[in-house]
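Sample entry (222 residues):
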Amino acid sequence: MSKLIDIFVQEGIGAGRGDAQLILMGSLLFTLCMAGAMALTYRLCHNTLTYNRKFNITLVMLAFLSTVLMTLIQSNPLFSLGVLGSLSICRIRLNTKDPRDLGFVFWAISIGIASSMGAYFASLVSSAVLCLILVISSKLTRKTNASMIVVRGEKGQMDNVQKIFHSRRGISVQSKNIFEESFELVYELHVKTKEEEKLISQLGALEGIHGVNVLAPETKAA
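Predicted structure, serialized as tokens:
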């Protein structure tokens, strides 16, 4: 039994150790480059409300540690058995606000595995494709997302408010609530940011307006 353990422990420690160290350094450097590209993609795919800086740093750490862990497992079979045993008793819970975050976790692990195995081309191509798909889809989603604007005020100003909305394109009414002395109008906006700011300023300048609220239903506050 002791001879068998010696065989496992001595695996990968003999000749070529210097080359193995150079390969490890190259793998870690490649992992950092790919993890940096992944972190930049994560930042571009999120706005200021949904972006989680700590989670983004964790993704880089996960890719780096995956590379080190997979390299150790490949060079030492006995260590791989210990890692499997330790992971079997670990229970990790990850509560993600965005379903895409789980995909980024697997992306980070894939970068580490590919780097440790020397599959640099596969990691580079797949990461580049994922970057393009995620950035493009994020830009398209932001363009199609609609904002909701809620206007509350005195009942006498309701007609003036409706005229302002009806004079612009990309605006549709969602609900009207008329009370004895006040009203509440909810509109859906498909306009640019500058046009939205002008609309808010124009509504705020009217007398008898109690409040103008802009909501983004697709945005999840942190």
